Amino acid sequence: MRHDFEMRWLLPAATLLAAAPAAATTYFTLEQAQHSLFPGQAMALQQLTLTPAQAKAVQAASGVRVRTPELRLWRAADGGWFYLDQVLGKHEFITYALALDAHGSVIGLEILDYRETYGDAIRNPKWRAQFTGKRHGAPLKLDSDIVNLSGATLSSAHIVEGVRRLLATHALVVAQHG
């Protein structure tokens, strides 16, 4: 009898806990990420929306769907670029920043907000450093030139795809508008 009573209350409670959304963790604000990637530099917001033709070209070049045509980017005083973007982890969005030098090479990657319950190993500096120096046209393939992280497979894969998409966007659109 006692077992039935416990199960009647424990199962609904366990179901609620399992369905509860992951707590978001903010590691950097926008300003902190900008300062981390472009220390001491002024940042100028750039307004740019991809046309349908540009989005299609970026998708074809990167192999990654363009979810939104609006770009969130800033130009650094030294001519570099700061992109703020989101990719889907397993269930929730991961907000990250990508910094490119004036020639379109990655100089840094920071994770701003991570909302999943696990997989935040993508914040590891050694893992993020694998992107340094990558440009549009680099393979950027998980398990090939970017190491996959056990327990963070989807987060790893989607960050790789996001960076590949932003590098294509930069080369095909942003660098052309200067």
Explained architecture:
With 178 residues, the chain is of the alpha+beta class. 38% of the residues lie in helices and 23% in strands. The protein has 5 helices and 6 strands; from the N terminus they run H-E-H-E-H-E-E-E-E-H-H. It has helices at residues 2-19, 30-37, 52-62, 125-129, 153-177; strands spanning 25-26, 43-49, 70-76, 81-88, 93-100, 106-114. A 6-stranded antiparallel beta sheet has the order 1-6-5-4-3-2. Helix 3 packs across helix 5. The radius of gyration is 19 Å and the shape is globular. The termini are far apart.
The portion of residues forming beta strands comes to 15-25%
Overall spatial form: globular
Rounded average pLDDT: 86
* Count of alpha/pi helices: 5
Q: Could you give the distance between the termini? A: 74 Å
Largest sheet: 6 strands, antiparallel
Radius of gyration from CA coordinates? 19 Å
Low-confidence stretches: 9-22
Helix content: 25-40%
Number of strands: 6
Strand order of the biggest β-sheet: 1-6-5-4-3-2
Order of helices and strands: HEHEHEEEEHH
Return the structural class.
alpha+beta
Structural topology:
Elements: H1 2-19, E1 25-26, H2 30-37, E2 43-49, H3 52-62, E3 70-76, E4 81-88, E5 93-100, E6 106-114, H4 125-129, H5 153-177
Antiparallel strand pairs: 1-6, 2-3, 3-4, 4-5, 5-6
